[in-house]
């Protein structure tokens, strides 16, 4: 997670704590602790403390879930991708040649299984033995080499086409593979989905024009 996001989280947590601290400060100004009496008043104060703790916990947990994952070993990256693909339904994989999956037996078998279940879309630069295998197994495979440009983006969208879809975007920074996850509400997700949909539409139009009499 970027320094900006960490700072935003810190400000958020401090604001929550400050809000509840201000509430107690004002409350005890007019109602000293020595004058607190009755189970209802005590329960109300305990409830506000609990709400404060829950709010801080939820924000901190969201940060831990959303922060980028860092992996140094290709095997760790593949393990993450298997978990990402197997945990959800229809998936779209945007890659150059899928060499990262072809060279890992477990990942390869998982993608073949999803192909047979008609739950896999692959957007790749050009044909390769593995992409041909996926297509023959039932996957929808799109090639974009005809556009004359190779996008640098590499990502995988799970639950593709649904409102709760998510995207995992990967890249290397100083030799470390970084993966970030984004939901449909994210601008990053929308950019990734738009890129994939644009190439799918382009490929369909290209094929239709090529086969036209």
What descriptive keywords fit this protein?
alpha/beta; 7 helices; elongated; 17% strand; 213 residues; seven-stranded mixed beta sheet
Write the layout of secondary structure elements.
Elements: H1 3-30, H2 39-66, E1 69-71, H3 74-86, E2 91-94, H4 99-102, H5 105-116, E3 120-124, H6 129-137, E4 140-143, E5 155-158, E6 166-173, E7 176-183, H7 187-211
Parallel strand pairs: 2-3, 3-4
Antiparallel strand pairs: 1-7, 2-5, 5-6, 6-7
What do you see in this structure?
The radius of gyration is 25 Å and the shape is elongated. It is built from 7 helices and 7 strands; from the N terminus they run H-H-E-H-E-H-H-E-H-E-E-E-E-H. The longest helix has 28 residues, at 3-30. With 213 residues, it is α/β, with parallel strands linked by helices. The termini are far apart. The protein has helices at 3-30, 39-66, 74-86, 99-102, 105-116, 129-137, 187-211; strands at residues 69-71, 91-94, 120-124, 140-143, 155-158, 166-173, 176-183. The model has no long low-confidence stretch (mean pLDDT 80). Helix 1 packs antiparallel against helix 2 (39-66), helix 3 runs parallel beside helix 5 and helix 5 runs parallel beside helix 6. The chain has a 7-stranded mixed beta sheet with strand order 1-7-6-5-2-3-4, sandwiched between helices.
Distance between the termini: 53 Å
The average pLDDT is 80
Gyration radius from CA atoms, angstroms = 25 Å
Major beta-sheet overview: 7 strands, mixed
Beta-strand residue percentage: 15-25%
The assigned structural class equals alpha/beta
Unreliable runs: none
Helix coverage percent: 55-70%
Strand order of the largest sheet: 1-7-6-5-2-3-4
């Amino acid at each position: 997670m970027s320094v900006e996001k960490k700072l935003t989280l810190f400000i958020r947590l401090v604001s929550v704590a400050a809000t509840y601290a201000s509430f107690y400060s004002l409350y005890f100004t007019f109602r000293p602790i020595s004058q607190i009496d009755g189970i209802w008043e005590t329960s109300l104060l305990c409830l506000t403390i609990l709400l404060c703790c829950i709010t801080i916990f939820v924000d901190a947990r969201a940060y831990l879930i959303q922060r980028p994952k860092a992996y140094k070993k290709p095997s760790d990256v593949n393990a993450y991708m298997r978990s990402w693909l197997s945990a959800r339904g229809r998936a779209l994989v945007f890659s150059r040649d899928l060499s990262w999956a072809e060279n890992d037996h477990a990942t390869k078998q998982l993608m073949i299984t999803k192909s047979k279940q008609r739950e896999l879309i692959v957007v790749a630069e050009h044909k390769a033995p593995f992409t041909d295998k996926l297509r023959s197994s039932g996957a929808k495979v799109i090639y974009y080499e005809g556009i004359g440009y190779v996008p640098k983006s590499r990502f995988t969208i799970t639950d593709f086409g649904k409102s709760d879809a998510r995207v995992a975007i990967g890249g290397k920074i100083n030799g470390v593979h970084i993966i970030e996850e984004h939901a449909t509400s994210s601008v990053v997700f929308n950019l990734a989905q738009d890129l994939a949909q644009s190439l799918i539409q382009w490929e369909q139009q290209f094929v239709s024009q090529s086969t036209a009499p």
